Each structure stands twice: as structure tokens, then as C-alpha cells.
Amino acid sequence: MEVQLFNHTQLISFTTQVLHAIGHSAEDAALAADVLISADLRGVDSHGVARLRGYINLWKAQRMNPKPVIRIEHETPSTATVDGDLGLGLVVAPKAMEIAIAKAKEVGTGWVAINNSNHYGIAGYHAMMALEHDMIGISLTNATPTTAPTFGKQRMLGTNPIAVAFPTENQPPFVADFSTTTAAVGKLEILQRKNMDTPSGWIQDADGNGITDAHGLKKGGSLLPLGSDREHSSHKGYCLGSVVDIMCAVLSGANYGPWVPPFLAFMQPSAEQVGKGIGHFVGAMRIDAFRPADDFKRHMDNWIETFRTCEPINENQSVIIPGDPEREMTQERLNGGIPLLMPVVEDLMDIGKTFGVKL
Amino acid sequence: MEVQLFNHTQLISFTTQVLHAIGHSAEDAALAADVLISADLRGVDSHGVARLRGYINLWKAQRMNPKPVIRIEHETPSTATVDGDLGLGLVVAPKAMEIAIAKAKEVGTGWVAINNSNHYGIAGYHAMMALEHDMIGISLTNATPTTAPTFGKQRMLGTNPIAVAFPTENQPPFVADFSTTTAAVGKLEILQRKNMDTPSGWIQDADGNGITDAHGLKKGGSLLPLGSDREHSSHKGYCLGSVVDIMCAVLSGANYGPWVPPFLAFMQPSAEQVGKGIGHFVGAMRIDAFRPADDFKRHMDNWIETFRTCEPINENQSVIIPGDPEREMTQERLNGGIPLLMPVVEDLMDIGKTFGVKL
To answer: What 8-state DSSP symbol labels residue A251?
Structure first.
């Protein structure tokens, strides 16, 4: 498929100007653009600038507030609950993570549950904010209902990702960032563009039969929890997605389960609400609240070197350390540019025209 | 297979007396017995009294200290690192969880990383200790290396379970407790006793080929991470198992990865050590550090009722709430007794004879 290359600074500048044009402060617009383009740099194209239109549509539908007053509703020395005032998750989550980091500085760990937010980009961005402080970073979010629980037919959970980042000494940091479904929506989109079927075990139809139609979700189907089927422990993926949902929303006061407002503005949120907006949960743990940071980082290096040199099944495919592929992709795209598919480029051009911003 | 039924109080009394006979204080022996038999009550037979011989063997091999002086090595208001003094995890982990709960009372959350411990029974026991305090409980442990990372041949991780418990109002509590592999060792043992093969996607042989021989681990094979293969996202199970390993051991100063000392006393721990004993990580989060506990518990009830009534694929198999099967099993076994396989009964008889304790 044809692509056009863009420098990341060009995309950040464009996104910043567009978000500013729809009412964000210069500071918030720049922060959100940084989070959004970090996804493109890391190769998570489904969560990058291609979603700018989606955020604009939420704003048009008055489901996103470009001037949020982010407020701590309740706090203790190690916790806070934050009301995101229906702002972009791209803005709300990094600010909540700053609160978590500040609390960790004071009492060892900081944990922030966030309600009344919107889609927050890649989970890993927020977790990685902890690294420069020699802290472990954790980031969870709930999301548009797409996923059936084990034995169920209905879409009850989102892809509900988990990100955890550990600092290191000389090795690059360990950054795990993954959905709790077998495959995330972005993987389906790639297959749709190529007119390919999915492997079995990724999705089911509206009756709960396993299917391989990459367009199956649009026809009432569901994603399957990590594990795919009961025999391969999909109940564990369902547990994980549920834990993320509860931490992000039942704990924060956001919408949970089937009530989570969908990211796509043309899909109506359910009339009934059980909380405010969507929910996130972020945490920071100071390493030296447990042991000297240098000791931990030295052992992390050893952990990584040990796993990287694990004997591979196929000599052409060594064992991967979480975060390695995204880091390599970032290096490649910082140097060579970010390839955007032509439909995405045309969409951005159109957005640019609407708001008088040059791509 | 023939079984004999035992009252749970009988098994607790027997286990307490045996552990006391090998040197534990009466108090520690009773605590360990309570943790151990809770596994039998919950139907996790692989982690219950059938393992008593294993713990005794560790003591004989001088790899378990029956008189541990459990010590806080380092702490902050919300964290502690605990040296378990090579005690039973069955004793060390509940005491560490008490520390986490006490810290959560003070500053909202408490997190304890534990080194120099041994096998701690079922992860769920320790997480569930938080429930009566209106707290969320979390419990992780690393374990005997049995599991290959995605693309790898060697056993680098244990089954590294995750347990999370959420309090509720009128519904029974939500208790997730699961290994981060597709199948845990206990599942293999059941198939071995029945002379049955495993489903595909559970294990691989020493060369990394998928196999279905339930005895495959004894022949140098490995368990597979949750997800089973790359196409079904085994890298996510590998990430989860790795995060558990790092939180439990790199953070606490215990052995990690392939250095984790095996539970089976006849397997020699590696001569080189990168830390002390095996590691756990437990946490407690006070609900009202985020929102009023009554609000949370009311919404948890709604979450549970909503998921339980999700339209099922098969009308004879409704959607399960994490913790339901174990709770139902507990009720059944509290009333009707705990069935033990005859080889387990004979082994316990033999242990009883050695230590002058009547089963």
C-alpha cells in the first residue's frame, strides 16, 4: 500500500496546531501531540495521528472538552482520584501520572485513578514517564466495549491494555505494553487493508462462533480475551481485562463494562451511565523505596541479558525483550520518517484545510 | 480414581502438628496449615496438603528454615522490603500482607516485596486477606523455572501467578487467581493421572516443538506462556510472567528467572545465586483512599450482576465471575469433606508415622 513519509516534528507541529485550533491551550495541545505521535514513532500506527479525526469527532459531538480543569477529587499520601473534566486522555493521563510520581517521591509509591476522561493514546507513554525518576511506571485504561467474556456472546470489555515500565542501567528499559485480548483492533485493521482473514482464535461472531472474518466486529462479533478459548485459558485474559476495567472505572467512578462510551463518535454512548467518561489508572513506584536503585538496575540489566541470550528455537529469531521492537522502530522512524498510508494523509490534509493548518 | 474424604479441620490439625514437629512455632504452624488447606478447600488440589511432603523435603535439604525471623530490610510510608529468613512462604507471605495492610491504613496503599522465601501456596489466599479491611488485595510470586519465553527453548520463568481480590457489597467478592502460563503444572498432573494427552498449545519439547505429552516437562520440555504461540499473543503471557518475576525478585533482592530455586528438593538450585530464595510481592489498596467504600462495593455488585447475566453462547454454561468456582467448591468441601487421592493419603500416613502424628 502506498505511503508518504513525514518527519515526526512535522506531525507533532501539525497535531499541536489542530488541537490548539479546536480550543486546547498551547501547552495541552503540545502535550497531546507528543503522546499521539509517540505511538507513530513506536510503530503503533493504530494509536497515532491516524486517530486525530476520531478525537476531532468527539469534540464535535461535545463528548470531549478542549479546556478541561483537571481536579483532584480525593487523595491520601499515596493515592488520588482525578476528574479529567471530559478532557483528552492524551492530556489527562500524563497530568495524573505527574501526580503519581510526586506522591511516590514523598511516600514511596503513588496511585491515581482517573474518571471522566477520553482515549489516552498508547498505555506505554504514561508508564514510561516514571523511568527518568528511577521509578516503575504502570498504566491501565478501559476502552470501547469490543470483547466478550469467556462463555459470553456480548461485548462487555474493551481491549483494556496494561503497560509496565522498569528502569535499567545500560540496557534499554523494559517496557511491556499490550492489550488483554488475543489481538487488538489495530491488528484487525491491518488485515482488513490487506483483504486477509484473521487466524482462528481472535474473534467470534454475534452468536459466539469462532470466525476469521477480519470485518467480523462490524457485523456484531467480538474480540476474544487473551488465551482465545477456554481450553487455552481465555478465562485468564477475561480476568485481566476485568481487573483493568475495575481498577480504571469502578475504583475511579468512571463508566465500566458495557457502559464505557465508545471512541467512535458516531456510536452513541448508552443513555444510562454508571459513572463519568472512561477511566484510567496510573501508578509510580520509587525503586529505592524497596532497594538501592543502582542494585535494581544492575540486576535488570542481568535479567535482560539472560533472557535475550536464551537459546532460541529458530536461530533467526532470538528471544525479544519487551520494548525492543518499539525502540528499534522509533530509531528507524526518527531517522527515516513516519510512513502514513495515503488515506490517512488525505484525511489529515482535509483536517488541515478545515482548521487552516498546513501539513 | 479412588479417593478418601477428610474433614478440613482434621487436615488443618494434622498439618499444624507436622509443621510443629519439624520445628515451627505453634502459631506459625497453624498459619501455614490454614493457607495450605485453603487450597484444598478451594479445589486447587495441586497446592494443598498433597504438597506437605515437598515442604518437609525442603526442610530436610536445609532449604527451609522452620524458625524464621522475618525482618523488614527497608521501608517507606507505603512500601517495605521483607527478608523471609528462608521461612515457608505459607508463613512469610501472610505476615508481609499484614504489613501491607497496616501501611494502607496509614497512607492509602501498602506494597511489600519479599525475598528469601519459599513456595507460598495459593496466591489468592494472601490477596483475599485485604477484603475484610475494605481493601483491594494483590499477590504475586515467582516459582520454579518451567516456562519458555516466546521464541525460546529454555525454562526461564515459573508459572508466576497473579491474584487480585476486590471487595463487594452483597455479591461474593471478585477473586482472580491464575498462572501466567496457558496451563499450570497442576493441570498436567491431572492429565498424567488419567493417562491423557494435553491439548496443543500447552507445552513444547526441549527443541521447542509443540507436543501433547503430559509428561513432557520431565523430558526437558517447557510450559508455554498464556497465549500459547506468537500468533495467539504468547508474547503477552511472557510479558506478564516477566513482570511478575521482576516485581517479586529483581525488586526484592530474591532470585529471578532461571535462578529461582526449584520447589522440588531433589532438584539442586543453581550453584550461582543472584539473590536470596524465591520472591513474592503483595499489595493492599484502601478503597476509601479513592472513593467511599460503599459506592465502590455497590458498583462492584452491579459489575458482577451485569457480567453474570451476559448472554451466554451455550445456555447451559453461563459467564463465570472470577472466584465463583472456588467459592462453590469451598462450600461443597466444608460440608462434604475434602477428597484426597489414595497415593496422597498413603503419603500423609507415612508422614504421620515419621512424626508421631495421627491423620
So the answer is: T
Nearest-Cα residue of chain B relative to residue A246: B300
Q: Please identify which residue in the block is written with the cell numbers 470466525.
A: A211
Q: Does the structure show a pLDDT above 90 at B162?
A: yes
Distance of CA A356 to the CA centre of its chain: 29
> What is the grid cell recorded at B31?
498459619
CATH of domain B3-292+324-355: 3.30.1370.60
Question: Which of B155, B166, B236, B270 would best serve as a mutation to test chain A binding (most A beta carbons within 10 A)?
Answer: B236
pLDDT bracket for residue A186 (50, 70, 90): confident
Using a CB-CB cut-off of 8 Å, the residues of chain A touching B111 are: 108-109, 285
* DSSP codes, A27-66: HHHHHHHHHHHHHHHHT-GGGSGGGHHHHHHHHHTT-S-S
Domain ranges for chain B, please list them.
3-292+324-355
Nearest CA-CA partner of B295 in A161, A78, A74, A71: A74
Nearest to A349 by CA among A121, A65, A14: A14
A248 DSSP assignment: I
Pair B287, B165: CB distance under 8 Å: no
pLDDT in tens, A34-70: 999 999 999 999 999 999 999 999 999 999 999 999 9
Look up residue B222 and give its DSSP letter. Answer: E
Query: Do residues A93 and A126 make contact, with C-beta atoms less than 8 angstroms apart?
Result: yes
CB contact under 8 A, A151 and B246: no
Is residue B350 packed enough to be buried (19+ CB in 10 Å), middle (13-18) or exposed (0-12)? exposed
With contact defined as beta carbons under 8 Å apart, do A231 and A250 qualify?
no
Q: Which grid cell sits at A269?
A: 454512548
Q: What torsion do the CA atoms of B151, B237, B253, B113 make, to the nearest 10 degrees?
A: 180
Q: How far apart are the first and last CA of chain A?
A: 21
* DSSP assignments along B83-107, one per residue: E-TT--HHHHHHHHHHHHHHHHHHH
Nearest CA in chain A to B207: A313
Tell me how crowded residue B4 is: count the other CB atoms within 10 A of its CB: 15
Angle (CA) B126-B128-B129 rounded to 5° is 70
pLDDT, tens digit, for every residue of B272-289?
A: 999 999 999 999 999 999
Q: What residues of chain A lie within 8 A of the CB of B317, using their CB?
A: 151
| pLDDT, tens digit, 9 for 90 and up, residues B74-91 | 999 999 999 999 999 999
What is the arrangement of strands in the sheet containing A203-204, beginning at the earlier edge strand? A210-211, A203-204, A222-223
CB B306 within 8 Å of CB A258: yes
Task: Give the residue-averaged pLDDT of A204-229.
Answer: 96
> Is the Cα dihedral B31, B32, B35, B41 positive or negative?
negative
